[in-house]
Amino acid sequence: MMQSRTRPPERPPRTHPPTPEHPVSYKLTFDGRELPAQEGQSVAAALWSAGILAWRTTRTNGAPRGAFCGIGQCYDCLVTVNGRPNQRACLLPARPGDTVTTQEGTGRAALED
Ligand code: FES
Questions:
Q1: What pLDDT is stored for residue 58 in this prediction?
Q2: Whose CA is nearest to atom 3 of ligand 1?
Q3: In the predicted structure, residue 97 carries a pLDDT above the cut 60
């Protein structure tokens, strides 16, 4: 018996009705600059969409870093979000009004007063 070579039916698009808390598009800020973001984007995706590729520097050489693996393994994408350092931007969903800031050094500056 021959198998059909037809395509499987396409999945319906995921639909999440926009709500005031979860609008389809919204704004967040990165180092004081307002950026657009879309529902479902990670913080890294929102930064990439705005053309921002690096948002952290290494603690020893100050080398720029951004998303590398994109799956939460390399920790190159650490960023400070809403005052919380060491957030993996590739995994963290962006939320309306998030305040994202560049992270320098160990990400413990807030603890070293
Ligand atoms: S890009 Fe590797 S952990 Fe985020």
A1: 86
A2: 72
A3: yes
- Structure tokens given for 111: 């603890």
Distance between CA atoms of 19 and 75, rounded to whole angstroms? 32
Query: Which ligand 1 atom sits nearest the alpha carbon of residue 73?
Result: 3
CB-ligand 1 contact for 56 (6 Å cutoff): no
Compute the distance between CA of residue 98 and CA of residue 49 in angstroms, rounded to an integer: 16
- Ligand 1 atom nearest the C-alpha of 68 is 1
Contacts of 107 by beta carbon, 8 Å cutoff, 6+ apart: 78, 80, 85, 86
Q: Which pTM value belongs to this model?
A: 0.78
- Bridge partners of residue 29, in order along the sequence: 34, 99
Return the bridge partners of 88, or none.
Answer: 78
- Interacting residues of 60 by C-beta distance below 8 A, sequence separation 6+: none
Q: In whole angstroms, give the CA distance from residue 25 to residue 28.
A: 10
Question: For residue 77, what pLDDT is reported?
Answer: 96
